[in-house]
Amino acid sequence: MSQQRRMGGQPMFILNEDSQRTEGEDAQTSNIAAGKAISEAVRTTLGPRGMDKMLVSDSGDVVITNDGATILDEMEIEHPAAQMIVEVAETQEEEVGDGTTTASVLAGELLKQAEDLLDDDVHPTTIVEGYHEAAQLAQESIDADVDEETLLSVAESSMTGKGTGDVNAAGLAETVVEAVQHVDTDAGVVRDNITVRTQTGASSSATELVEGVIVDEEPGHENMPRSVDDAAIAVLDNDIDLKESSIDAEYNITEVDQLDQAIEAEETELRGYVDKIEDVGAKVVFATGDIADRAKAFLAKRGILAFESVGDDDAKSIASATGGSRAGSVDDLEADDLGEADEVRVEKFDDDDVAFIEGGAAADAVTVFARGGTDHVTDELERALTDALDVVTAALDQGGVVPGAGAAEIAIAAHIRDEAASIEGRKQLAVEAFADAVDVLPRTLAANTGMDPIDALVDLRSEFDSEGRAGIISEGQTGIIGDPVEYGVLDPAAVKEEAVESATEASTMIVRIDDVISAE
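The structure assignment produced for this chain is given below.
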């Protein structure tokens, strides 16, 4: 039915007759229900004892993970309000690289609390104002600190409960922290200088940090060296091949001498390119274009290691990491364009050749070379390592770490409740509801650990009141109440700050919507 308004006694049609409109409480109920549903979808994955989800695409591709961002990315979500919760996770992932499940669960619980307030006739604007005031109080209560020991703890905490194959999170944490510290400069951590590269065929315990760049490339000729020390590296954005004529021409060769002369001319041209490469001092060549077979043979005879058809991204990484410049052609190549590395070597993994560019200027970049027995293992290991690298970077760059295991949330909720008493009117109800929503995180951790969530919450509050810090520590088949700092369970402060901010923004935006108009 079309939407209409009467004007001068005549109906005036505003919306297309195929449009659908949901107003008032129906719109709010629908949107809140959709947001809560998304939150519930990832809630059981929270914490070190969180469960995995199996996601199967239309084509039959299978992803098994408990990473909140991956789960929400793989789900085909159509409801616009639910999509807003997905955007919370995306924002969390983009800003700090971890805490996507935390942000999504908090957003869902804020919506649930708002639904109860709406049922009690609290106006949406009052709820929004109360939530924003409570969020500011939450940010005030986040007290952060950082040192190397805490960086190891935060990396380990980030990976605990995620797929790390046959190696424990503590071992990988050392690799992660070493990688981040390697690219930590006076201007901050250069996160783009850290790459995670996966390779099946070995156990996860074979994962290592390579001070340099790794690319999937094989030598252009079997007689080329597979290892070059003190390597001067040329990166070419062109072919190493005969120049094509700008006009179409035919040559009639009637004598063998003419053919020999033509072949000799071609070889002279190709040798000239190889001479130029050798003269400028290059020992290794990465070309984005093709290399003629005869040119490969000439390069091999000179002991020059060359790679062809190198991807543009890899060429960019190699040039950047080695301090070189990309030359447009061999004719343009100069000695100043060359990059440097202590070693370039090629190793074989199963049937694949992999090139390692290590040391020298290349040491400005590092690669976490992640190993695993299957593609599923390496995929999940890559996600875990990427999250850990992001959270350690956030810890260094964005204000340190806070106690994990739900301890930060217990402190946040307590601070908000203390301050709520001084807030007048119905807005106080919204502030207190925000504190109740924050409690969902330690309650969920307790439930996923095998504890009774209500009893655990009571014990957490009691321990916090007496000791000033309390969290859910996973131990054996269940959990205990303890000091997460003593157990090395820490989270980046930026993760908590971003989760509070993004969850508050999404939930308040949804609460304010009282009219949904959709075109069919």
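Interim note for the steering committee: Residues 256-279 form the longest helix (24 residues). Residues 58 and 357 are 39 Å apart (CA to CA).
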